[in-house]
Batch of 2 targets.
Target 1
Amino acid sequence: MDTISDTLGRFGGVYLLPLALGAVAFILMGAPSSWVTLTIAGLAMGMMVFLMASGLSLVFGLMDVLNFGHSAFISFGAFVAASILAGLSGWLEGGWFLASAALALALLGSIAFGLAAGLFFETVIIRPVYRDHLRQILITMGALIVSEQLILAIWGGTPFTVARPTFLEGAWIIGDVSIEIYRVFAFVLGLSVFVGLMLLLNRTRIGLLIRAGVENREMVESLGFKINRLFIGVFMLGSALAALGGAMWAGYETLITPALGGEMMIVVFIVVIIGGLGSIEGTLLGAIIVGLTANYVGFLAPKLALASNMILMMAILMWRPSGLKPAVK
Amino acid sequence: MNVLLSIRDMKTSIGQYHVLHGVTFDVREGGVFVLLGRNGAGKTTTLRSIMGLWQPSPASITFKGQNIAGMTTADIARLGIAYVPENMGIFGGLTVQENLILATTKGRFDQIRLRRIYELFPALEQFWSKQAWALSGGQKQMLAVARAIIEPRDLILVDEPTKGLAPSIVAAMGEAFREIALTTTILLVEQNFNFARSLGRDMAVIDDGHVVHRGTMADFAADSDLQGKLLGLSA
């Protein structure tokens, strides 16, 4: 006889959770237009958090490294992109083509910074403390504090205004529903990165190695592969994705401070834990659930907004201690 | 017959614990060399030290005339040593095909070797596209061994391949090892003495991090007193 879990599994299993969350919120709100607006906001937030969290999940899963310094990549990504956009402010007002080029340069700049910073961080800071969690926490926390001070020294403590291309400003109004264009852009970009990562992990030999390494690093080495090279590559990829996530979040917030990365880090850790370490699908699922929960609860019970994601994490961990979609079965 | 692997006074520590206190033996080319010993004697540590997964004392392991102590695990594997660990080391989230592809140098199968594997382990062809976590214990062991022979190797280190397997699977595994040993040298760690006796040509017994006996399996199998003394086996 099938259990409830088997039956649910046939219809999509844990992938039904965002739908169930949406359905419950729809019933509780009773206002379809607000529900659509909040759902799109939640999906967009989820996709930006996914960008920030996916790299951390892979680094956690593959390298067994607790990198509290990950939020530094988010902050730097945000400030690098914001600075490039500020420097190209003339382009932002120079028509669609120039504005798109400025946006692309800002995003590519943050990715390039993330790659370089990831290479430096892995070789100088992380490598000496592999297999030593306590020292990892101490040294990456230290690196995070130094990074935040560097941002303060370079960009100052006053909030930095982020310029946005005019074609991403405003909203589409459909009936009573308002859909912010930037949120749609964030959703599409996040989805594209997810598809790209899935292709990388499932259709390439490097991806196969990453998936294998998440499960059993020793065995990957025993098959003749230099795991350290894989570590560097994955760490750089994770840092670049975090920087891209930070850049997108900067455009979403439009006013950023050096504390941006630290503020997002709690949400990023929650997503990685509830998604399942080393799992890109789990990270996406966790990010979308967290994004939707934050927006729905913010509307229905604003006083519970801060606690909602913690309650969500506790509930999911009690139900599935390894996360919703762990990479290792 | 040439010596393929030579181990001299190998000492290995794990953290603050000294596990191997000076292991010495030679593995000749071809056939099955069996390493016997009680639980905790240091058999698995010996295999892991050869593979570079734990670092042994310098200049204590020579493979094909080259000192491999201190080399990385990946470099040791590339010299032609495959490793089948006690826990099988299967990548559960990968399919049978993906597990085998990872063990190839260029990501392509030699069709002749693949057919040989299908003949040895028909279940692998049947579950080719299935994720490895869904396989039974015996099928996982077959996959672990298949991964070690999907490309030509000079030496295969196998750690307790019959542990927890049904007698019919153990028999099939024995047949497979006999055939593999025709072309490849196998260094086998095994607790199942009957299985080890049926396969081994040379053998050594390890106890408390030392090799306490070396010789041919035929001589050891004929000496029940020695078996009782070294392995605690009753006649």
Target 2
Amino acid sequence: MTTITFIQPDGAAREVVAKPGESGMQAATRAGVEGIIGECGGSCMCATCHVEVAPQDIGRLPPRDDIEQEMLESILTDVPEGSRLCCQIKLVPELDGLVLHVVEIAG
Amino acid sequence: MSIERIVIVGTGHAGTQLAASLRQDGYAGAIALIGDETDLPYHKPPLSKAFLKGGEAELQLLRPEEFYVKNRVELMLGRRVAAIGPAEHRVALDDGSTIAYDRLVLATGARPRLPALPGIDLGGVVALRNRADGLMLRAATVGAEDVVVIGGGFIGMELAATFAALGRKVTVIEAAPRILGRAVAPQISEHLAASAVAAGVRLLTATTLRGLEGDQGRVSHVVTANGERIAAQVVVVGIGVLPNQELAEAAGIACANGIVVDRSFRTSHPDIFAIGDVASYEHWMAARVLRLESVQNATDQARAVAKSLLGMPADYRAVPWFWSDQGDAKLQMVGLSFDADEHVVRGESGAGSFSVFHYRAGRLLAIDSINRAADHMLGRKMLAAGFSPPPAAVRDLSVDLRALAEAALAERAAPVIAGA
């Protein structure tokens, strides 16, 4: 079982238990986590599932692929190390306890 | 007159986003969201990919169930609207009941067009549009070895990649000389065709069909016009869609390849609006009347019509974008490439990462990208701002296009100082 925590900009935390094979975006939208929209359904096209991975967890994630990297570079001037589109984070059991901060986006 | 009840027909991306946007924009009245499918509104694009591949046939919901409760959206699933009464401001459901509205929004979408071929009604022949079609396709695929895809468009090529990945023998039959011919640049068609072939897909372009043959009511072969019989236990049809405009037509609302709407998405009846795949409108970028079939078109129009329903200014100027995941190739498109007279390639098509920039008379119209998300995202910004990078700069990979565009846009935005 993989339990992850989403933290809102105001500090409110929400724990979500992921189903096998789910992405961070899928778990968040299924649970109704505010601020994670996933408008493109997980195709890395819309950047509406932007999160900051908690510093202690950054090293636990596989690196971004080229498309995710380019999407993030397109929406941010500088891409912080922990910035991710969480549709690209597969919630494998090793990621139990992962903490993701929801990033406020305009619009 | 205040608006107390908005009725939305259609629970796809457009209708569902509209319910959300109305609440986000502060609308406090009633919202009814009516659709003939029984599932909670869900993402359609995964149906041709993850839905077929996954161990379980699970839908990816657009919003969790609690969203509809929290936002007081009266979700009426499994209900079919039988008629619209514009004069009475009511819709009639197929069970005979009626619902009153102050404003009605038709987000009825489109349905697959089927070719008039002998045998098209055989078992194992599926056109994919919704979950029921997806389940039928999943079931038909069990035990099937040979899959024929009729139509080398987006959904056909996505399905071909999916079935090839599932180890099936796949043949794509396309009447035009190249796949995706109406939608993308020739270089993009060539690249995607080569990827499909490399994945084991047999591509027959410039090929038409004579018919389908069956055995005990199930498809067994498709037969090409020149007589080749191709084994097929599953046939998927993807040759385009027809707008679901019949309800509107019957109510006397103007239709022409879709429900005709103005810039605020109002139909020929002042209290009835239409958005999404079904809406036909003069596009601000292309100066022509068209329908767009995409998630972006559906959701951006939903956001815009919410504003126009609530009397807020809503000049719809969204830049259209679209994507198609075909195996490992990610196709991203932005803008509309109609009437382009110059096609400029950035990157190397051989390396599987390149874009085609479409121009008309020196003005950037659209960009098709394969595995070059940065070009795509920059394209959204440049097209929204009306900035056209010089073709010479686009061709030259040593030019930082983003820096070029940002500098040009910053200069444009700089305040003009009187007398300076």
